[in-house]
Every structure is written in structure tokens, then in C-alpha cells.
Design a protein that fits this description.
By secondary structure, the protein is mainly beta. It has helices spanning about 215-225, 240-245, 250-260; strands spanning about 5-15, 20-25, 30-35, 45-55, 60, 75-80, 85-90, 95-100, 110-120, 125-130, 150-155, 160-165, 170-175, 185-195, 200-205, 230, 265-270, 270-275. The strands form 4 sheets. A 5-stranded antiparallel β-sheet has the order 3-2-1-4-5, with no helix packed on it. The chain has a 5-stranded antiparallel β-sheet with strand order 8-7-6-9-10, with no helix packed on it.
């Protein structure tokens, strides 16, 4: 099957005047116009191509690399506004259409917008939508606490920055956990810091996943989570108290909380340690 809006590896079937006809193993065919034909080829060779509808609504294969493909998110520039909607630059000859009904806010020429690309089943056309939240679902999570995840910065809120998690879920980075400049469309690494009731995801920035924290630090993080973010222990605590609560030496405890403090995961107060 030839998939619209995706990369397809197809076989060269024949060389014709308008270009090469490519096919899959189900006898489906698509034209690769002359402008995209490689300098050297043989019938029977395989080519990786992107397939979409051209300006005349014909199925066509190209070797161009779009900025976004079907089922993906990307930050795109609006090139034009018409009475039908907006047309976005996605690196292809034919621009990507975003109808007014799919615009979270009315788009303007020259503006940049985070959009999702999907196939309109009625027309077989690729369409963009800036209403990205409706393509995300937190009902059944595919991530766990402390797991490292891929992020796309979605949109700001009063309490932080909304992010797309692994292109599937919606998460939030609270303002007090943002220690760098981030903008809509940025692609980052993060960690699932906490899963709240309703499968709401609290995200922390960084590639140092909790799994990569030394074992003693990971144990302290779990104890903090289990005790509402507070432990009545500090670097001044009696070694026996530390051993009783955490089953580790005072030396190991100080090293672990030092590591967590440097990563801005905890704060250390005279009365104990607090989860940030």
C-alpha cells in the first residue's frame, strides 16, 4: 500500500516521458516526475520517496523532504491567508492547508504556528491543525514516572509551559522548573517527574533521567514521593536516624542529596529536605 503523507520505499517499474512510475508489492503505482528522477537508475531499483497530492490533486512521489509528515507536529510559517484558510510552508511545492476550523487562533501571514498534520479522509488531502491538544490523549499513558521522554513545546499557560510528550500525551513544566529559555516548537529531552490524578503529567527538563541517578539518590527521591515531598533528614542528622529511615550511611546520604540538589530536584533546609 502507498501511504499518503509518509515516506514510502517503492520499486521503479518503468521509465516514461513524464517520469518514473513507482510501485509497491500490491500493484499500486505513483509517478515520480522528471525533476525528481535520480541521475542514474535501473528498472527494479528501490527509491525512498514522499507521497502526497500535487497542485492538480494527483497522487505524486517526490524526493523532497517536508518539514512535517502525517501524524507529526512541527512549527511552520504561514505564507498566505485566503477565504478558505491558511497556507503553510512545509518545504514542498504545494503548501500545506490549514482551514479556519482547525486554527486554535486566527492565523496571520508571516506568523509561526505549531501544527499537527493529518489526512482528511473525505478528500485524501493532507491538512494541518493548530488545535494540537485534540490529537493528544492521556487516558491510557504509555510513559511511567521517572521515564526519559521526548518533548515538543506546545503553548504557555499561567503556571508553566505545556509540552507534547512522545508525540502522544500532554504534559506541563511548571514555571519554577524552567531554568532555560524555551519557545513554542522547541524539541527537548525531559523526565516524567510525577503522574498526578487524572493522568496529568508533570515534566522536568533534562536528559539525566531518574533511572540514571545513583541508586541512593533514586531511593531518596522515592521516599520523598511517598512522604508528600518531605523527609525529616538533613546533612546534620544523626547517622543512626539516616540508617533507620533510608538504610544507608550518612556519607552515602550526603553524597546523594548533594547530587539531587545540584540537579535542582530538592531543596535542603535546617528541618529536612523538600522535593521541588
Amino acid at each position: 500500500m502507498i501511504h499518503i503523507g509518509e515516506y514510502n520505499t517503492l520499486t521503479i517499474l518503468r521509465d516514461t516521458e513524464p517520469g518514473l512510475f513507482l510501485g509497491d508489492n500490491e500493484e499500486n503505482e505513483v509517478l515520480l516526475p522528471n525533476r525528481y528522477v535520480p541521475a542514474s537508475f535501473e528498472v527494479g531499483d528501490s527509491l525512498e520517496v514522499f507521497v502526497y497530492l500535487d497542485n492538480e490533486e494527483r497522487l505524486v512521489a517526490v524526493t523532497d523532504k517536508p518539514y512535517i509528515k502525517r501524524g507529526d507536529f512541527a512549527l511552520l510559517r504561514c505564507n498566505a491567508i485566503t477565504k478558505m484558510g491558511a497556507f503553510l510552508d512545509w518545504g514542498m511545492v504545494k503548501e500545506l492547508f490549514c482551514p479556519f476550523k482547525e486554527q486554535a487562533f486566527k492565523m496571520k501571514k508571516g506568523g509561526w504556528y505549531l501544527v499537527y498534520c493529518y489526512l482528511d479522509e473525505k478528500t485524501d488531502r493532507l491538512v494541518a491543525s493548530s488545535k494540537t491538544n485534540r490529537f493528544l490523549d492521556n487516558k491510557e499513558l504509555t510513559v511511567e514516572q521517572f521515564e526519559e521522554v521526548d518533548l515538543i513545546v506546545s503553548h504557555p499557560s499561567e503556571i508553566g509551559m505545556n509540552v507534547i510528550v512522545n508525540k502522544k500525551h500532554l504534559g506541563l513544566i511548571y514555571n519554577d522548573n524552567i531554568f532555560q529559555d524555551i519557545s513554542v516548537g522547541d524539541r527537548l529531552k525531559g523526565v516524567v517527574k510525577k503522574i498526578r490524578p487524572g493522568n496529568k503529567l508533570d515534566i522536568a527538563l533534562g536528559q539525566v533521567g531518574y533511572r540514571n541517578i545513583e541508586p541512593n539518590a533514586e531511593l531518596i527521591m522515592k521516599e520523598l514521593e511517598d512522604n508528600s515531598g518531605y523527609l525529616n533528614l538533613s546533612d546534620k542528622s544523626d547517622p543512626e536516624d539516616i540508617k533507620r529511615v533510608l538504610q544507608m550511611s550518612k556519607k552515602s546520604f550526603k553524597k546523594a542529596i548533594g547530587s539531587l540538589y545540584k540537579q535542582k530536584l530538592i531543596r535542603i533546609e535546617p528541618d529536612g529536605i523538600y522535593l521541588l
